[in-house]
Design a protein that fits this description.
single chain; 261 residues; two-stranded antiparallel ribbon; 11 helices; globular
Length: 261
C-alpha cells in the first residue's frame, strides 16, 4: 500500500463544533485551562468550529455538537434544532445549558425583564425573545456537563464517553452524601445556609470542601425534596425566603416546572 493510499484510508477524526448561546462563555474558556492536556484532547478530534478561536462559519456536517448557554430567543431555538438534526451527539455544558442557569431567572416574566433593561423598545439585535430554558427543553441532549463553570476534566470525561462510549451512570443523589464523605463537617453547623441538601451530586462537593456553601449550580437532584430542605434550613435559623431566593439563581426553570414558588 502506498503512503497516499494509507493516508486516504485512515479513519476520520470525529468532527466537533462548539456553539454558544446565552451565557458568559466561561465554561468554554475554562476548558482551555487544562493547558497540559488540551493538545492531547484536540489531537483526537477535528475541531471544525469554535467561536473562541475562529470567525469561520460552522460547517454543514459534524459528529458532535457542544452547546453552552440557555435558549433565550427563537433564533437560538432554531440553532439547537439544526444542531440536533446534523449531529450524532449533542453535549450541553454548564448550568445555563443544563438548567437554564442564571438566564432562567427571567423565565417567569421575560417581557418585564426586557422592559426593565431596554425600556419600551427591545433592540432588534436581541432577536425574538422567549422564556429562557435549558437546551434539553428544546431538543434531546445526549450528555450533560453540569456546574458553573464546568470542570474541564469532567468535560473531557464526557467528551470521551461521547466519542468512545461509557457505562458510567450520571449521579442522581444529593450533594450532602459527597460532602459528608469529605469529612469537612456540615456548613449548617457553622451557621451557613447550603444548597447541598437538594443539589445533584457529582462535583465532589468542592465548594463546601473549601468552606463555601453550595449554590446549586449542578442543578436539582432527582431525589431532592425542596420542601423538606426548606424546613431544615428554617430549623437552623435561616429565613425560608432566603433559601428560595438562593435556589432560584440556577434552578428557576426547574422550580417553576415543579410548581415551586
Amino acid at each position: 500500500m502506498s503512503e497516499r493510499e494509507s493516508v486516504t484510508d485512515a479513519p476520520r477524526a470525529p468532527r466537533v463544533v462548539f456553539a454558544g448561546l446565552a451565557s458568559c462563555f466561561g465554561c468554554q474558556i475554562n476548558i482551555t485551562n487544562i493547558e497540559e492536556h488540551l493538545l492531547a484532547v484536540l489531537g483526537q478530534i477535528d475541531l471544525a468550529y469554535w467561536q473562541l478561536t475562529s470567525s469561520a462559519p460552522m460547517p454543514d456536517e459534524f459528529d458532535v455538537a457542544v452547546v453552552e448557554g440557555a435558549v433565550t430567543t427563537e433564533e437560538a431555538a432554531r440553532t439547537v434544532r439544526r444542531l440536533r438534526e446534523r449531529a450524532r451527539t449533542v453535549i450541553a455544558i454548564g448550568a445555563c445549558a443544563a438548567t437554564g442557569g442564571i438566564p432562567g431567572m427571567a423565565a417567569g416574566d421575560i417581557a418585564g425583564h426586557a422592559a426593565a433593561v431596554y425600556g419600551e423598545s427591545t433592540p432588534a439585535a436581541c432577536g425574538s425573545l422567549r422564556a429562557p430554558a435549558p437546551v434539553s427543553a428544546v431538543i434531546d441532549v445526549d450528555f450533560t456537563v453540569p456546574c458553573c463553570p464546568v470542570d474541564p476534566f469532567d468535560f473531557v470525561r464526557v467528551l470521551d464517553a461521547a466519542l468512545y462510549g461509557s457505562n458510567r451512570l450520571a449521579a442522581t443523589s444529593a450533594l450532602c452524601g459527597e460532602c459528608s464523605r469529605n469529612e469537612g463537617g456540615c456548613l449548617y453547623a457553622r451557621g451557613q445556609m447550603c444548597l447541598g441538601l437538594v443539589t445533584r451530586a457529582g462535583c465532589g462537593a468542592r465548594c463546601p470542601a473549601l468552606g463555601r456553601a453550595c449554590n446549586g449550580c449542578a442543578g436539582l437532584s432527582p431525589d431532592a425534596n425542596v420542601g423538606a430542605a426548606r424546613a431544615f434550613a428554617a430549623s437552623r435559623g435561616h429565613v425560608p425566603e432566603r433559601f428560595d431566593e438562593a435556589l432560584q439563581m440556577f434552578n428557576a426553570v426547574a422550580l417553576a416546572a415543579a410548581g415551586e414558588e
